[in-house]
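To: structure subgroup
Subject: Chain for Friday's discussion

All,

I'm putting the inputs and outputs inline so they're searchable in the archive.
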Amino acid sequence: MSAHISHSAAAVSLTHLLPARRGIDWQVKSTKYRTLTNTCTSHITDGFRSLIIIERAGTIEVHTDRWHDRAGTPQITVDTTGSDPVAALAAHVLRCTLPLLDKDRATETLRTAGPEQALADRVEALAEVGFALIDAGAHPTSTIRPHGEGLEWASSKGGQWWMQAIHPLAALNLDYHGPINGLYALLPAFLPPADGHTPTETGTAFTRHLTHRFPQLRPLNDDKVKFDGCQQPHGWIATSTDTSTAEDDTPVSAQFSDVGPDLLLTVVSHLL
């Protein structure tokens, strides 16, 4: 991609990387915000959430119109000289920004319509991901566990997934039981960027097997690694087998929390 990305190209490209929700695609609209000198400003929306894209000399920023963001602090800023700056924007928006906006919306629903409606909206998002799984060839079944309603399905690698909506203000949670290589394609979308992370040489063969492939993971003990961060997905991966060796088919359990439905809709193929 060229180092000089036009205002309209960046905004339009970003809308193409964000999934449609409730059948509504993201679109570029005329902005209601005053454009700063020497910047280009775009407003993109899917009808119930909005983002402001600001292009300055050499950078592109993503802002939300949440009240405490109006001081000008961007959700993310990327250098346009990077290999794919719009993809970097989209990855952050999917992991962090849209779940933040969804939580704001759920908080308002909780205040005005009560917890039942807020949870119903979350279950609706669960169903939306479920239909995407069906369209992709999975066969999810509805299940009830102590923490609430969920969907369960088998993966092609022999793993078992379970997805649920636990709390009205939380995003969706995923549980996984199966071979470790069933997570390889999915983890890059959930983890923060690898920049600044280095593999650890400490721990067991199991923890090193994972941290060498994904340096954002950190060992908790001999049989468990984790990743976390503010306002983004977090989780852990653990095994109950011998940790002195590790192979791609090593059985693991994993749990991922606060995963936004938009992100899940973009990684459906990795959940099969």
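Points worth raising on Friday:
Confidence is low (pLDDT under 50) at residues 1-7.
DSSP finds six helices and 13 strands in the chain.

D.
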